[in-house]
Amino acid sequence: MLQPLIRWTRAVLFSLAGVAAATPALPASTVATDAVRDALATTPAPAPAVTQAQSAAQVRAEAVARADTSSASSDTVALTPIRGKTAIARSTAYNSVPGQTDSTPFITATGTRTRPGVVALSRDLLRTFPYGTKVMIEDLSGKYTNMLRGRVFIVEDTMAARKTNSVDVWMATRSEALNWGARQIRITAVR
């Protein structure tokens, strides 16, 4: 029942368009068979598997090395945004303890060691301020203006995926991080 209806619909449509209702010619069955056989014969190369013995630091270091070689071969003009790009975000502080970081607390997401001047950004801010961007931080409450004045920070770390519009400043001790607390800041790209 369905086949005659399809043929009738095709004939009506072609007659309305002024085209003969001829069915298109199909390739010989050997051509189709050969094409299927060729497609099944070629198998893609398997992706390199990551062994369970590799630590998180080794995996991260390899990813950074791959990114460095791929960015060196690409025609990217600049990695940092235009000077003066600004965002207002929530700022907290962290220090290098496993409870606040992953299993490698002294290694940043870019593979460098934590040190004063390193900041971690939430993933939404990383689109605006990519890794390696030099930024200045201004405390909007005015309490820590002297501590931050003239200081340049480098974006080298990232925060947990659940965090949005947030900046984490690395501090050497837990007491410094607790004194920093949580505050509104303005982050500005300088280079």
Question: Which sheet architecture does the biggest sheet show?
Answer: 6 strands, mixed, barrel
Query: What's the Cα radius of gyration?
Result: 29 Å
Strand order in the sheet with the most strands: 1-5-2-4-3-6
Task: Determine the N-to-C terminus distance.
Answer: 71 Å
Mean pLDDT: 74
Protein name: 3D domain-containing protein
Signal peptide: 1-27
Domain 3D: 129-189
Pfam families: 3D (PF06725)
Explain the layout of strands and helices.
Elements (H helix, E strand, L loop, with lengths): L1 H16 L11 H13 L14 H18 L12 E9 L23 E4 L1 H4 L7 E6 L5 H4 L4 E6 L7 E5 L3 H7 L2 E7 L2
Parallel strand pairs: 1-5, 2-4
Antiparallel strand pairs: 1-6, 2-5, 3-4, 3-6
Keywords: Signal
Protein name: 3D domain-containing protein
Organism: Deinococcus caeni
Description:
The longest helix is centred in the middle third of the chain and has 18 residues, at 56-73. With 191 residues, this protein is of the alpha/beta class. Mean pLDDT is 74; it is low at 71-82. Strands 1-5-2-4-3-6 form a six-stranded mixed barrel. The protein has helices at residues 2-17, 29-41, 56-73, 123-126, 145-148, 174-180; strands at residues 86-94, 118-121, 134-139, 153-158, 166-170, 183-189.
Brief descriptors of the model:
191 residues; alpha/beta; 6-stranded mixed β-barrel; signal; 3D domain-containing protein; 3D_dom
